[in-house]
Each structure stands twice: as C-alpha cells, then as structure tokens.
TrEMBL record:
Keyword presence, Transcription: yes
Stated name of the protein: Mediator of RNA polymerase II transcription subunit 18
InterPro entries linked: Mediator_Med18
GO biological process, one term: regulation of transcription by RNA polymerase II
Principal subcellular localization: nucleus
Organism: Exophiala xenobiotica
Entry's Gene Ontology molecular function annotations: transcription coregulator activity
Keywords: Activator, Nucleus, Transcription, Transcription regulation
Subunit comment: Component of the Mediator complex.
Protein family per UniProt: Belongs to the Mediator complex subunit 18 family.
Localization per Swiss-Prot or TrEMBL: Nucleus
Length: 272
C-alpha cells in the first residue's frame, strides 16, 4: 500500500473556521479522532560494532568494510503501534476539546473496558520518495493487532519501545481523500510494560500539553492506494489531492511534506 499526501498548517485562531469550511466542503460533520502513538525503533544487528571501519590488520579493505556496514545497517526504521479510540467513547468538553465519555474516566487506566475501546494497529511508514514531487508519496503497511502483549511481541521481533504521544483532531472524507485536522499532544512517559495499559490521561485530554506551544494544528490530506506503483491509480490520487489543494487554497496552503521531517529511518549507527 502507498500513502499519497499533502500537508498544511492551521493556526489555533483559524482552527474553528477551518473545521467549518471543511464541513461545508465535504458536506459532513467532523468525526472526532483520538490516536495513541507508541514509537518503537529497530535494534541494530548484533556484532555491528565489530565490523571494522577501515582496513588494516583485520584484512578487510575500507570500501568492503563500508559495504558490509551499510548492508547490516540498512532497513533500520522507527515503527509505531497506533491505538484508535472508538467513536462512541469520545465527547466534546465545554471548551471544544475532545475527551473520553464518563465510562472510562476512572483514572486507573487498567480496566478491561479501557482496553476494549482501543483498536491497535502496527504501522510502518517508509521515507517519502526523493526528488521534486507534486505530492508526498511513500510505502505504508498497517497490520491490526487483536490480542496479546503487543510490546513484548515487537520486542521479540527486534523493536524496542521509545516513547509515546497522541493525535487529537477531526476527520473529514471526500471521495478517496481523508482530510485530517489534528494536533500532537505529549503523553506522560512510562516504562515499556505500562505503555499500553496506562491510559489514565484519557479522563481529561485537555490537561495534556501540546507539542506546538502556539496551539497550531496540521491539516493532512491523504489517500491510501493499494498499489501505488500502478500509473493510473497514482495519477488519480494525484489529481484528487491537487484538486483539494486548489479548492482550499484560500483557507490553507497544502504542500508536499518535508522529506527529512518525515524520514522514518534510524540515524546511521556510529561506531563506538
């Protein structure tokens, strides 16, 4: 699967107006979204530090050593476990923020009811394609997780837990496009074994701190295509996204995402 996308910035003061414009544009009411994102990173292959970085007594010439290190270091990415809250568990507070319904506001974050309302999905997003592009394009994999110890499962496959955050926002849909207006909020950091079970913060999302201190939002217009290498499907997705860009240009400037900002690769391992 491939993701094609455009991105735009929405200021805090323009957020309500943006929601109203998108509601009129898509002829639908916004659908509230709360997504918990757990970030994992791939562990470097065992023994990578033992590969020499230069020739000498080891008997490996520098170009060959560099090739071996590059091969072992390739394919190391950050991945995410995304937990989406059920729509019937969301409500609006008096100030317009999104929070949980009273049924989950017990504060302990460990009830079976809490777990049953969160749908977890393993998500891998590649780094966007290089070169000057009209839209951002990248490989995408999503795999639903049904039951079990997800963190331990990923650990067994070589991914270690790093941190977590949450997306708070609203979805709109038009043709094949999802228009997602959202902000990123910080979550209390906990050990890996508590990353999923601790959801006590859901009782009052408004108390969580925004990553963007200005309170700004992001508008992501995206289309997921089963075969992004198919020319006809790619052209169709591109036309749709550029059509939204033109239609919404008075409200928001939609552009391809910065490739470095969307890079999901781990930094090259430095020999210690």
């Amino acid at each position: 699967m491939h993701e094609f996308a455009l991105y735009g910035q929405v200021t805090k003061n323009d957020h309500h107006r943006m929601l109203q414009q998108l509601a009129g544009y898509t002829r639908m009411q916004p659908q509230d979204v709360l997504e918990i994102h757990l970030v994992f990173k791939a562990r470097q292959p065992p023994g990578l530090d033992n590969v020499p970085s230069a020739g000498g007594s080891q008997g490996i010439m520098q170009p060959e050593a560099q090739k071996v290190r590059a091969m072992l270091n390739a394919g190391l990415y950050y991945v995410q476990l995304v937990g989406e809250l059920a729509q019937n568990e969301l409500k609006h507070t008096a100030n317009g923020d999104i929070s949980m319904t009273s049924g989950n506001g017990n504060g302990n974050g460990n009830s079976e009811h809490d777990k049953s309302t969160i749908k977890w999905t393993f998500e891998f997003k590649d780094t966007p394609d290089p070169g000057k592009q009209a839209i951002s394009s990248r490989l995408l994999y999503r795999i639903p997780f049904e039951a079990g110890d997800f963190v331990e499962f990923l650990n067994a496959f070589g991914y270690e837990y790093v941190s977590r955050y949450m997306l708070v926002g609203s979805n709109f849909y038009d043709q094949d496009t999802t228009l997602f207006v959202h902000k990123v909020v910080q979550l209390p950091q906990v050990p890996a074994d508590k990353a999923i079970s601790d959801v006590s913060f859901l009782s009052d999302v408004s108390k969580l701190q925004d990553f963007d201190r200005s309170g700004g939002y992001i508008l992501q217009a995206s289309i997921d295509v089963v075969d992004g290498n198919h020319p006809e499907l790619k052209d169709r997705a591109t036309r749709q996204l550029l059509g939204h860009k033109e239609a919404l240009k008075q409200a928001v400037d939609l552009t391809p995402g910065d490739r470095l900002a969307l890079d999901t690769r781990l930094p090259s391992v430095v020999r210690r």
